[in-house]
Design brief:
single chain; alpha+beta; 5-stranded antiparallel sheet; two-stranded antiparallel ribbon; elongated
């Protein structure tokens, strides 16, 4: 009896030992799988990705800090340039790559032909209505849009405003555009109240106030065109093509190195000199809008715009000139 119990005990111990060995081998397999060459490579790859992401984030943060410092110094330099001028000046600059910007004295000023930028956007928002009111003549409508921007044709502006009205009324069309400007809230310093002269259109108006805009409002619209979000991607492309075909290039474009691509719209009267542009640099693209009013010398005002244009290009492109 005792011998049988000893045999049973020995058998039980061998069975327990067998189970223990199986458990140890299972644990070893798990460890091997988790630390084998395949999973080891995955861990290493994940660690490398994490390190790269951390390095990229640090580089981006450093670049943004450098861009902000550049923009701050540029604002100081532009202010120094404006210190020797007379009249009222407003400047808006935005680096579209690094998303840094500054404004100087942003306020509503008489828009002159810069108001055409906003009628351009409104015309594309209401393109089908304008086309219907133009008798379905696509070529005529597109040419009118082009003329308003590329050669700054005042009568083209007046015509497009009229085409906003089903009764072909300038005042009705003007009110439609003004209502959109107010309701959208995108351009708080921009208003359209009257026709532009000289033109074949008798002076027409819905208010005794003047058409106004600001450097920042113009900059916001140009950025939308640049990003393809002004009305639609196709509409933005059309608008950009008009701006790039601009024939009045004596202000901001004249301050850029030869061959630099820009897309601009000017505005000028005897007492105003404005220009708003998208500039395509080698290192970055940017928006620059300059408005001036009440100066004593128009030629000097144009030269100041050219100087500021050069300052901005040199600072953002890092030419050090």
């Amino acid at each position: 009896m005792k011998r049988r119990q000893r045999k049973m005990g020995a058998g039980f111990n061998r069975l327990r030992l067998t189970y223990l060995l199986i458990a140890v081998m299972a644990i070893a397999c798990v460890v091997l799988v988790n630390n084998g060459p395949i999973n080891g490579e995955k861990k290493e790859a994940a660690q490398e990705q994490a390190a790269q992401a951390e390095a990229d984030a640090a580089a981006k943060k450093a670049a943004q800090a450098a861009a902000a410092k550049t923009m701050s110094q540029l604002q100081t330099d532009v202010n120094a340039t404006l210190a020797s001028t007379d009249g009222t000046w407003s400047v808006y600059v935005k680096d579209l790559k690094n998303d840094t910007s500054f404004t100087i004295n942003d306020q509503p000023l008489y828009a002159a032909s810069l108001i055409k930028l906003f009628v351009l956007e409104s015309s594309y928002k209401n393109y089908h209505q304008l086309l219907e009111n133009a008798g379905g003549d696509t070529a005529y409508l597109n040419q009118t849009l082009s003329n308003m921007i590329t050669v700054s044709d005042n009568e083209a502006f007046n015509e497009l405003v009229r085409l906003h009205s089903d009764s072909y009324s300038f005042n009705e069309g003007c009110q439609t555009i003004e209502d959109w400007l107010k309701s959208s809230g995108e351009y708080p310093n921009t208003n359209v109240y009257h026709s532009l002269e000289p033109s074949n259109t008798p002076l027409s108006y819905i208010s005794v106030e003047s058409n106004t805009t600001s450097a920042a409002d113009c900059g916001k619209l140009l950025e939308k065109i640049y990003k393809g979000t002004c009305v639609s991607e196709n509409a933005s492309a059309d608008m950009l093509s008009f701006l790039k075909a601009q024939e009045k290039t004596g202000k901001i474009p004249a301050g850029l190195p030869e061959g630099t691509v820009s897309a601009n719209k000017t505005g000028e009267t005897d007492t105003e000199q404005h220009d708003a542009a998208i500039v395509y640099g080698d290192k970055t693209d940017y928006v620059i809008c300059i408005m001036s009013s009440g100066f004593s010398d128009g030629g000097a005002a144009v030269s100041t715009i050219q100087t500021i244009s050069s300052q901005v290009y040199n600072a953002l492109e890092g030419t050090g000139a």
